User: Fold this.
Amino acid sequence: MSGRSDRVAKRIGCAAIVAAAGVGLGLSVHHDVQFTGSVTTAKYVTQENGQLRQEECVYDAIRLFVPKGATVYVTARQFQPTQRLAELSTLWAVPEANIADAQYRLWLVGPHGQFVYPYPLTDAAPDPAKGKCEGLTLEVRRL
Amino acid sequence: MKAVVVLAVGLAVPGVLPALAAAGRSALVVFLAPVIGAVMAAVAVEIELGLGGSLLPDYAGVAVAVNVAVLAWWVAARRAAGRRRVPPPLTQGAWAWSVLAVLVVAACLAVPLSALRGPIFGGDGNSIWETHALMVYGGHHELLTSLQNVTYQFSNPDYPPLVPAAGALAFKFYGLANLHLAVDMTVLVTACGLGVVAMGLVAVSDVAAAGSGARWPARIVAVATAGAIGVVAFAVSGNFALQGYADLVWATFAVGAVVWGLVLPRSPRALTVAWICAVAASLTKNEGLATALVIIVVIALRYRPLSLPGPMARRWAERAVFVLVPALPGLAWAGIIRVIGVHDAFFKTASGETPLMRAGATIIGMADHLHVAPLALAVLLAGCWFLRDDRQRAGLANPAWLWICCLGSLAIIFGTYLIGGLEIHSWLANSVNRTTIFAQVVLYTDIAVWMILAAEGASSRAPARADREPPPASEHLPEVLDGARQAATDHS
Assistant:
């Protein structure tokens, strides 16, 4: 009798564990499916492709405006453009912490000449030769 | 698609032989080979920074050296095996379950990976990891001067090289026309790490089923759970996992090390896979190194327990080898980075906040991201009550080992927030959701292990009490099962 009740208790306990664990894992899976759905909509993918195009346009523009190996000053008041310009200058120009050591100063501006973050993204065709990158413009000044 | 080609050709092919040596003729090789490739690429970056050269020749050198060493070991092992028993070949049934598990895990991982259709980027994925990948791509001089350049201080130049190595390798394959390729590589390497974790859960089912006589419904639960764990890990990490952040990468490797080293029965193969995962975690991020060191020490104590008889000096020497061998690659990077004069920014300034205030904010911040802990604790208690004998009989480790690693990692992160110099609230706001990923995923993994054991226990035809015979040798993971009997001491 005791052995049988042990087995019944164990089966109930196992069922409870499977149920609790299944609900916990299932809710988390459900959350990811929902999240993945939200980042795979046509609108979201189009927007992300636009941002990647803008990033690669700025990358190309730096290589068109600045000679290879030149020292550049990329520090801005906000950290996002500093990080972005340093990142995209890598392998081509050498970012300098001190403006006195730099040959060029680089900065990014929005459609109306003001820097804004999040970065603006317009429908304008990217034109790295002019530093125009879908709403974001790369400004370069020889120091 | 390009990233898949780099993963297969650039990382998996050089890693196949070492993966076969580590995992045997197991489906785990599918996921383990790219992880080994990524580790070898990271070691190549250590050589690139410390000694010179560039990624491709250094990577080729490391890959050739490792593969030659594996072949030499194989030849020696075959000669030795000629005089001993040969492990039985896998049966069709075992292969069918193994292949099914790989297919289910891959199909489940395809759900979060489908987000790669859109190039999600920004944040650390760009400012740290893509930047470092470009530095690695540029060769020794570019890497050294850029890491020492104070303008790049924002990119935490001391961070380890595994993620940049994978990204730079992709750039070597396809050039710099698509900068998002580095992010794709990071996500795919993460998926492979999660595959290793998932196959560890399938192995848990193998050892549990071996003695219980459980039928296929329990196996289906195990395969489904293995498939789910990868999706759960992506759910825990949200957009960070898809943006090229390295937090889920190191957490995944660390969880792999825990599953293979501190959950499955002791065996040379499980130990090797655990060490590979620990090395990968230590080469991915600073938190990964700290957590990997905890895991490596705990694995050493499990495999060489303090109660082991024999000369004390020899036992401690063995434990030291068990720690130093897998810790070496991660510690080597930390050493090289300090030799070249690079330090992180977290401890540079002294905080004006009191330790009490920082501790309170950190506890609240971390607790907000550990909602899984009460469920994991409840499942642990119920599991210990109903399934302790089943777990012991299967040779699985005491769950305390996993919890020690979880709490150890949280303690290190708590200590970092406590003594760090950054303003605590903004620091927590920007990072605590990522620094707790390991704890969350490892607790979900513990829940998954108990779920598999409960499914086996519920469908088992074996008696309820621990008066049963030890499990027969499994056809599926023979060496893991060989270690099952040794593992009984874990529960002492």
About this structure: Chain A touches chain B through 51 residues (CB under 8 Å). The helical segments of chain A are 2-38, 42-65, 79-89. The beta strands of chain A are 71-73, 94-95, 104-109, 132-133, 136-142. Residues 41-142 of chain A form one domain.
